[in-house]
Amino acid sequence: MTASTAPGSRHAYAVVTGDLDRPAVRYHSLMPGGSDVSPFGRHVRRWRAIRRMSQLDLAMAAGTTARHLSFVETGRSRPGKDLILRIADALRVPLPERNTLLAAAGFPPAFPSCDLGSQALGPVDRVLEKVLRSHEPYPAWVVRHPFTFLRANAGAEALFPGLTQLFPGQLIDVWFGAGPFRDRVQNWPQVVQAGLTALRHAAADTGDPEVIGLLRRAETHSQEHLVTPEVQAESSPVVCPVFDLGGHIMRTISAVMRFDTAVEITTSQLRIELVFPADDDADAYFRTHRPARSPAAPMTAPVPLAVIKHARRPAGG
User: Fold this and answer.
1) Cys bridge to 193: 112, 124, 229, 296, which one at CB 3.0-4.6 A?
2) Where are the alpha helices (DSSP H) in 81-147?
């Protein structure tokens, strides 16, 4: 990772230009100081640095001119709502930060935030419950960005109970540290390396301080338990856990479902992690060990002591 100068600015931005395998210690240093930019312009320059876009690049993508964008960034011109949303689209800004951009320019938020279980998210709730239940006996979790497990079906609780009861930092400890996950996963080095790479991409793509903190925590575990994964592309087209469950070797393959056209914040942050059997033996294991559940039972379960024992509570949590 190196510091480089964003086009159209005298300030140095810490942008990710180096090896993704290096610890992410400066992803958050993307914000210029000084009085030569407006509050709105400061946010835009930060996102331009994250996306590595010049003023000209962004202006062309947003349907304006570099001169006008420069005036907007410095506060010499006040952007309209339509231009702000076009800029946000071009920069691929997440919905919560789009509201931040609007507020910085003096506009009210355009993207609502509702709770799961509310009437507004009734259709989303129905989709989530339908997918979780129809995916039985295979494991499935509803996850909210960046790493909060909200719901789990019976298959997921049978495989790893209690994940929905843990804080994101605790989940990082379970996933990347010593404990039941590491003990059950035969290809743990490959799975952990894939997880670290995904977190590094998420940190570089969003600059989200929470993601950066989780990445640092995961990297600490990887340094404590140094691993050198081997690439074995011939065994599976994707890196997924191979579980050893009481002598039963179970190969899995995973997929993720998202609401890519969401215009509501909570929905935009949701994903469903779906685990499938990768071969007939794994399919037979899942079906043979199908957990029983009442039709009205909730998609959650108590926290097992075995998991909590190995999960360190985050500082201040």
Assistant:
1) 229
2) 81-91, 95-104, 122-134
User: Quick one: which of 102, 86, 3 has its CA closest to 43?
Assistant: 102
Of the candidates 128, 9, 133, 146, the one whose C-alpha atom is nearest the C-alpha of residue 69 is 9
For residues 288 and 141, the answer to whether their CB atoms sit within 8 Å is no
**Nearest of 248, 241, 301 to residue 276 by alpha carbon:** 241
**What is the tens place of the pLDDT at every residue in 151-199?**
999 999 999 899 999 999 999 999 999 888 888 999 988 899 999 999 9
CATH code reported for the domain at 119-187+232-310: 3.30.450
How far, in Å, CA of 157 to CA of 301, rounded? 7
User: What three-state secondary structure class fits 54?
Assistant: coil
Burial 159-177 (b: 16+ CB within 10 A, else e): bbbbbbbbebbbbbbbbbb
CATH 1.10.260.40 for the 31-104 domain, yes or no: yes
**Alpha carbon distances (Å) from 41 to 38, 120, 129, 275:** 5, 33, 42, 43
d(CA 149, CA 146): 9
Hey, is 5 helix, strand or coil?
Answer: strand
- Using CB atoms within 10 Å of the CB of residue 308, give its burial: 0 to 12 exposed, 13 to 18 middle, 19+ buried: middle
pTM above 0.85, yes or no: no
